[in-house]
Amino acid sequence: ATSCKMVQGYACRINDQFKCDCSVNEPSLHFTLQCSFMSKRVFAELSHFLQNYSSFSKELNFNFIDIDRVPGDLSCIPNVRVLNLVWNTVQVIEPGTFANFTSQLESLSFKLNSIQALRNGSLLGLDRLTELDLSQNRVDTLESGAFMHVPRLERLDLSNNRIERVLRDTFSGL
């Protein structure tokens, strides 16, 4: 089994083969994790490691991992404030993906993925979200009610997409 441990407070090692950059700020109880170019298997096991820091607010950066969907394991990691899934292969954010998310997510980035549409219910469970970055995807359709579950959204980046249709009531709830 893969084990995760802190090394000198600044690096996370997984099986002594893969290293992520970590920073832990004890006084403010903030934990930042930056991981890139890891296998999907190793990525899936990180949630167990992160549960050791349940009282810390977290910024999680999982870039260039080639994940094609939001892993369900992320939903059980408490106190995630920032989640960046940049430059992966996510094609769809299924309705209900974040429904059981136990975090206080404020910022979410899917920049440089392959998302084609934002559906009603895709953002369900993200009622504290203030920033959403969907730039540089393949979004061509924004469904009606797509943003109804993010009433606090203040910043939305849809630049460099292929938006052809914005359905009626897409932005209802904002």
Summarize the structure.
This protein has 1 helix and 12 strands; from the N terminus they run E-E-E-E-H-E-E-E-E-E-E-E-E.
Kindly describe this structure.
It is built from one helix and twelve strands; from the N terminus they run ββββαββββββββ. The chain is mainly beta and 174 residues long. The longest helix has 11 residues. It is globular and about 45 Å long. It starts with a strand and ends in an 8-residue tail after the last strand. The N terminus is likely disordered.
Principal-axes geometry comes out as: globular
Strand content: 25-35%
**Cα distance, first to last residue?**
45 Å
Topology order in helix (H) and strand (E) letters: EEEEHEEEEEEEE
Mean pLDDT: 81
Main pleated sheet = 9 strands, mixed
- Structural class given helices, strands, pairing? mainly beta
Short descriptors:
12 strands; disordered N terminus; mainly beta; 174 residues
SSE layout and pairing:
Layout: E1 4-7, E2 11-14, E3 18-25, E4 30-36, H1 40-50, E5 57-63, E6 80-84, E7 107-109, E8 117-118, E9 131-133, E10 141-142, E11 155-157, E12 165-166
Parallel strand pairs: 4-5, 5-6, 6-7, 7-9, 8-10, 9-11, 10-12
Antiparallel strand pairs: 1-2, 2-3, 3-4
